[in-house]
Amino acid sequence: MKSMQDERNENDIKKSCNDPTACLEEMFVDQVQKMRVEQGQCPVRRPVFLRTHGILRGTMTILDNIPDDLKKGMWTNAGDHPVYARYSSDLNDGRPDWESTIGCGIKMFDIPGKKVVSDNGAGTADLLFQNVPFFFADNAEDFCSFTKASLEGWGDEWVQENAPNTNELLAEMAKPIRSVLETPLWSVVPFQLGKDQYCKYILKPATSTFSENPDIDDPNFMGKELASRLAAGYATIDIYIQPRPSAKEYGEAYIEEHFPLDKATVVWDEKTAEPIKVAVIKFPKQDITQAENEIYGDWLAFNIGRVPNANRPVGSIAEARMKVYKASADYRRKKNDQPVSEPTAPGEPKVENPKCPFPHHKDTDEKPKELTKDEIERIVDVKIHPGIGIARVGNSATEHYIGPEVMNPEPTKFGETRDPGGAIKRQAARFRIYGYDKYGNVVAEVQQSKNSTVEWSVHVANKKAQWYEFNAAMDIPATVDLTVPLRNPDVAGSGRDALAIDPGECKIMGINMNDSSYVMTGDFQGTPVTLGELRTDSVGRLLVLPGYGVSASPTDQPVYKPSDPNSFNNAAGWYDDICDGPVHAKVSVGDKDFEADGAWVSSGPPNFAPDMVAWRTLDDLLRAVYTDAGMMELPKRISFNEHVKPILQRLSDLQWVNKGYLSMFGANGPMNFNNEDLMHKLAKTPGGGPYPDPYGELRRIIFNSFRPVNNIAVEKRSWPWNYGDAYGYTDPDPTQPPSPNQYLKLPAYYDYVLSKWVEGDFISDYDPNTKTYKSLEELPLQERPESLDRANMHFCLADAFHPGAELTWPMRHASMYRAPYRIREREAGKDDPTYGTTLNHAKVIKVGGPLYAQGPGDLSRWMALPWQGDTAYCRSGYDMEYDPYVPTFWPARVPNQVLTYMDYKIVIDTNRSKEERIAAYENRASWMRVVPQNLPAPEQMEYMIAHFSEMGIIEALPGPKDLDGIPETLFVENLTTVRRKELEEAYKAFRKQFPKLGYYDQRLAEAGWFSEEQRNEFMTIKRRGN
């Protein structure tokens, strides 16, 4: 069995890193530099070592008394040479200076001769240094492979498999530095020293005016500290050559092992190879804070190959860096409309930055808003919203989007959820702070500004492998006698601690914070697992980005054992990167400090139908829970528009993800609840006159079509056509009747709403042109916090909990909450409760049990392990003798049948007949056809694990304007380009073959089954009881 990591190793790395230099150039220039420009960076900057601490002017004196065997190439030019030095850190904007890799580039003038990387005859040469004597990869191929894996979101897995010491080396490279003038730096890679000799370079601190202890809490203290030293007086640094020892003296094998030329992780011992001082650089007293000075220094291009041939850099990493640095510098300068050639004299030419933003950019960055004096005085409380934020995994290493913040956002544009390479973008959960007055009114949003600050803290975890098996929802009558064992029962004692992936608390503060220091990585039995990362936006709001959807077994265990149906969703030895946990914030408003009312974040699977909502949403469920618990009140009057219409229209909206729903409730169906004429009838209240209630019976027939709230029979024909919590999990005793919860019943709150409607006791306020808010900023300030709370839950599933997509059945228990949308959090430092080797109904519902106070990882621990299992199995077609398309599980998140792009093109083609176009519109293809259908169940799950990003995403395209009855907006399956072409050809062949099949085989095919054997295998997994 191959893990996702194996697939990536074979399909990606070996193909691209055979030419590591080309691969590195593509990644650093195209994927990093150009992508940042597309995202709004202006002026264009370097892909690495972005943070400039200071640009220093000085003079380098090459000593004339150095040993003759060192006087090679540029070191023959004794005397004074003007220099510029650029001190920098390999940090993205926003990250504090305290722990970083320091770099120094030195541009030397008046160095004659031809250079390896051309100086255009300007007589310049470069030296580059960093504050550790090693690199994190040995050679260019490893450098390429690690960088590519990191950009694709699985760097930790690559490290574990290929170079376990890499993370330690990277950690050592992020050193706490107080001053760049007090730290030694190394060239890392070796250089030729004449024909047959090699060396490395070392830069050592010498003299400088002592500065006061830096304020390391200042995120930019290093540049300020450097400026204060240079403003107070001169500084000097010394350059040393470290000659490689002679093989004649030490032996060839010893030298190759301890002083290799292409193994950059190896440090050359300075006792054996003693450095020799060859030059001194003096920086006179100067003001380095002038803007034109930094512009000039940032324009300079440094390249380790810009040296005479006698000093050529050596090794594959050096060869790659020479080409990548040149390509990067050329792109940066050309895009900035700046000179590309080398400077002929210090300070020349005069350089200006481009006018920003670039013409193709829109200045979309929101600016922090300061609070007014009145707002500061009025704020007495601050709260985080949303109370529960939802993030969604994806495999795009470069792009993400913000999750919904209103209930009716703009439809998802076709292609919007994939990056240019076809990978699925991650959905970030965004959190905001709102200040409230003493009456509970919203005063303002609190942002990171001159008079308000926010320090966020997040603690997520994944405890799935440490928790109990999922077999069924444990709070329904059908499972009152159910007992479930621990997952990974063979792991006992303290070893079970290693089953939990817990990165610990992560804090972030500031504006546009975004770098690797905020990545949340824990361990699963010694294997690093990244659960996500923190960022902030342009006003300091928190963004929680989830993991990349990675699921794997470090010990190569099977994901499912056919001999043990209970192993479905409970894979032993496996982990995934789904997680959840509390979100806190310390907030300062003027001179007042607050601990914000806390929130929660949880990550889930991708949203394969981002504009669809379930017939009952998680928001509906939660509001019913809060109402029953007395936290909210029932609506005093039922509004048709607000309460009745969603219950009906959601049936019609499922037409885009299930063919059964399309046929009954779709655009051309008999019960199209998006039809304005029908909805006007249903919204009409009884009145006076001889015909007071002409549509009363229509309302009653529709109401009676739903499965009753107190249903005691197993009835699959009633609405909605969805499975319930007890499907497949009823009493294993064959003498007991099946549970009526096999299929979804009318929830009590819906029954209340529709009963009032049937009785005519409702407000007739239907308006098809009702204004809907497409963004949070359109809403009145007082309504924004509630919109954030509700929108995050609105796009989550409430039924059926098998176990679910985002969250599961414990969410319907009031004991989980301290207030609406606020998870009851376990006290800090309090250990997780334990419940023994098995869990049963009595333990679950016990006061103080697992349905009460929660800690990091406690919401998601009930979910499927790995998460891809439910995506492959919770589908339609299990009752195909009744109907191949319904009932179904979660078509709003895991589509069943979809409108393909091939059929969409026919629908909008005005050159085709009306009949053909309508037939193409009514046609739906199996969403699961992406997965090879002839594979056994375990292999299908493995395919979904490794290739989930190939699954179709349902997105919006404009409908035809000339066909009556066809919606203005169509929701069409978006596949990667390669898979779309493959599947279009396969589907054409299938359509030709379909008429030749017998009746039963046609039903199998319509239901999406490859064979009767496959259907039976899946049925065995889903139906474990009577």
Alpha-carbon distance between the two ends: 33 Å
Mean pLDDT: 90
* Proportion of residues in helical segments: 25-40%
Estimated share of beta-strand residues? 15-25%
User: Main beta sheet, described?
Assistant: 9 strands, antiparallel
Core attributes:
single chain, about 1050 residues, 26 helices, elongated, disordered N terminus
Describe this structure in words.
With 1026 residues, the protein is of the alpha+beta class. 26% of the residues lie in helices and 18% in strands. The chain has 26 helices and 34 strands. Strands 1, 2, 4, 5, 7, 8, 9, 10 and 11 form a nine-stranded antiparallel β-sheet that branches. Strands 12, 14, 15, 16, 20, 21 and 22 form a seven-stranded mixed β-sheet that branches. It is elongated, with a radius of gyration of 32 Å. Mean pLDDT is 90; it is low at 1-15.
Summarize the model shown.
This protein is an alpha+beta fold.
Give the topology, please.
Blueprint: H1 4-16, H2 20-38, E1 51-62, E2 79-89, E3 99-100, E4 102-108, E5 125-130, H3 140-151, H4 155-162, H5 166-173, E6 175-176, E7 185-186, E8 191-192, E9 198-208, H6 221-232, E10 235-243, H7 247-250, H8 252-258, E11 276-283, H9 291-299, H10 316-335, H11 373-378, E12 381-385, E13 388-392, E14 400-402, E15 426-436, E16 442-446, E17 452-458, E18 483-485, E19 506-509, E20 519-524, E21 527-536, E22 542-546, E23 551-552, E24 575-576, E25 580-589, E26 592-595, E27 599-604, H12 618-628, H13 640-653, H14 659-665, H15 676-682, H16 696-704, H17 748-758, H18 784-794, E28 817-819, E29 822-823, E30 838-840, H19 841-845, H20 868-873, E31 897-898, H21 901-907, H22 914-922, E32 925-926, H23 937-947, E33 953-958, E34 969-974, H24 977-993, H25 999-1007, H26 1012-1022
Parallel strand pairs: 13-27, 14-15
Antiparallel strand pairs: 1-2, 1-11, 2-4, 3-6, 4-5, 7-9, 8-9, 9-10, 10-11, 12-15, 15-16, 15-22, 17-19, 17-25, 18-30, 20-21, 21-22, 23-24, 25-26, 25-27, 28-29, 31-32, 33-34
Helix pairs in contact: 1-23, 2-3, 2-10, 3-4, 12-18, 13-17, 16-17, 21-22
